[in-house]
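A.,

Following up on our hallway conversation. Structure tokens first:
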């Protein structure tokens, strides 16, 4: 019985699927859950993915277990709505991704040799994906790069795609020269152009910065996350030192906080060595 399934802690994915079906039942389900659609749930899906990444970054494995469950729930939510609308089901989604993984790993599940370098495996993977895009009638080199990605990550992926077809600077020096050019244009826009034009120049500079990360073999999204974490950690150190003096940031001068910032940074470097 469905009721027994819902209360069976060992029932696995079938239990979760039944719980979602009950939540979405038009007659007996939860009013909030019934009202939701793909668009309204999508922001939660993105949020849960970030919370998974955050738990991993903090090596909090107990929390990661819970966050992975939250992310799995998002898949179940979308597949239940897809099933209701006749688009797809949870089982068809599982079948699709399973087929894709088998097709993309012929050296594991097929008769191709596993004796390949990492570079060759990457090239083979990209070739398989290119054939898949062709099968989906994606004609342009940039087709299929999701619009909903974080802007910095999407810039990186767009540039990576363009580079595959030869549209790329040959070396890092030219990218750095382009950064200097874009920075000068941003300064000029700030002084002489409209806010919209200044924003455009700022975007151009960020786009080239993402490209520099790619040329250096760095993930710009990961690099910026690390910079955010470092800033948060160091500013918390400044606040702690101010609190020890009975002060808050808003009660302090920039010079005082800057000196404390330098002290926090110096301590971090001493600890690292």
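Then the amino acids I'd put at each of the 273 positions:
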């Amino acid at each position: 019985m469905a009721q027994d399934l819902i209360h069976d802690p060992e029932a696995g994915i079938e239990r979760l699927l039944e719980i979602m079906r009950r939540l979405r039942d038009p007659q007996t389900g939860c009013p909030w859950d019934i009202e939701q659609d793909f668009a309204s749930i999508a922001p939660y899906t993105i949020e849960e993915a970030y919370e998974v990444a955050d738990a991993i970054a903090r090596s909090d494995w107990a929390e990661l277990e819970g966050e992975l469950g939250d992310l799995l729930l998002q898949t179940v939510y979308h597949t239940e709505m897809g099933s209701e609308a006749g688009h797809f089901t949870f089982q068809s989604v599982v079948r699709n991704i399973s087929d894709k993984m088998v097709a993309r790993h012929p050296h594991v599940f097929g008769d191709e040799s596993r004796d390949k370098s990492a570079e060759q495996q990457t090239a083979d993977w990209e070739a398989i994906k290119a054939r898949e895009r062709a099968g989906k009638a994606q004609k342009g080199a940039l087709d299929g790069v999701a619009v909903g990605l974080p802007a910095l990550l999407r810039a990186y992926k767009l540039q990576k795609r363009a580079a595959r077809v030869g549209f790329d600077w040959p070396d890092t020096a030219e990218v750095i020269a382009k950064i200097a050019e874009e920075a000068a244009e941003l300064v000029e826009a700030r002084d002489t152009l409209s806010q919209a034009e200044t924003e455009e120049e700022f975007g151009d500079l960020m786009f080239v910065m993402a490209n520099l990360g790619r040329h250096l073999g760095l993930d710009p999204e990961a690099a910026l996350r690390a910079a955010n974490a470092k800033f948060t950690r160091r500013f918390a150190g400044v606040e702690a030192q101010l609190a020890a003096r009975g002060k808050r940031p808003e009660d302090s001068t920039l010079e005082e906080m800057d000196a404390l910032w330098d002290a926090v940074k110096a301590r971090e470097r001493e600890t690292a060595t």
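The mean pLDDT is 91. Curious whether your intuition agrees with the design.

B.
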